[in-house]
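Appendix B, example 12.
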Amino acid sequence: MSTTFSLGAQSLKLDTEADIQKHTSPLKDSTSITTVNFTGNTLGAPACAALAPLLSTQKQLHTAQLADIFTSRLLSEIPPALSSLLTALLSLEKLETVDLSDNAFGLNTVAPLEPFLSQHVPLRHLILNNNGLGPEAGIKVANALSELAERKTEARNQGRNVPDLETVICGRNRLETGSMAAWARAFRAHKRGIRVVKMVQNGIRPEGIVTLLSPQGLGACEDLQIVDLQDNTFTALGVRALATVLPRWKGLRELGLGDLLLGAKGMGMVCEALGQGENKELRVLRVQYNEIDSRAVKKLVQVLEMGKLERLRRVELNGNKFSEDDDGVEKLRHILKERKEESEEGVEWGIDELSDLEEESEEEDEDSGKEEEEEREEKAERILQDADREEASKVSQKNDKEVDDLAEKLGKTEMV
């Protein structure tokens, strides 16, 4: 008998108890279900109330995929529906992975999340991608996770075998700088176990990046394996904070820095940090759309030629300021190709497709460099102003395939 119960991606509209009962026979017939998947349907409050007692009987459940389950629901419907589900899940001591992405929570509907996130000590992998949280709701979620760390410690002191919180994915949520102090505290509270942090496209300003990466935040999390902060705004201030913390992440495998306005100078600082040789496990580096020029690419090549980053296999560089046949790009491509030939790993290698490059200026002197830096700062300010105007926009219903794939993987395996 299958241990997975799935209604995934069936576009069902389940309003009432009768609607959900048509589909839940496997949950009634077995208490050995390990994975439930309701993603891509829409559940009303009465349907969730009827589903909750069935979920609470599944004591072997370790993965709950609840992404995109409230499409077209009124804001007033979501809190009671979510509360029914999470209250049932709270009693399941083997439930480690919860995916609630693509549900429009926001400040008005985040309340049911707080008791679950602060009390569910078995939680190992949390995915909250594209939930329209905003900074205030983001603070509530982060504070709940800080409290969870205390609950986990209490449970261990009582002799319980409790997993660490290893994965936090909270991207496309407009968390902004205002919530970063709370998130920094949450990550520091879980520093003994946190392995994966993805906070892409959150409108975080440079000051917020500094707070997030400080020793009071991710700077204290020395066992990180995946860090993805793409599509926020670093500038020089954020890059300096990153360069300081990078050597501490000795087990880092993937680093996502795309679309952060790094610039050539910022990329140079990243290369200097990587050149210290502390990031021996790094496999993937994403630095697309950062106004990086050929000089910065050469600095990365120099790091590799010095024997650093010996496990690097994938570099994503599209959308920057150099030509596809640049000498540095060719050298980088050659180095990665040689590594692929010597490896037995069947994974993605090399450089990404360079289909959207910007022509590099032929004149490169000190004055032009200063002008480029000023232009970059002005661009950063425009982006931040645009982000402010978009703060009140509704949560998008577009799914993030990369996050969906990772959510599925986390339901099957554990990070090592």
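The mean pLDDT is 90. The longest strand covers residues 4-6.
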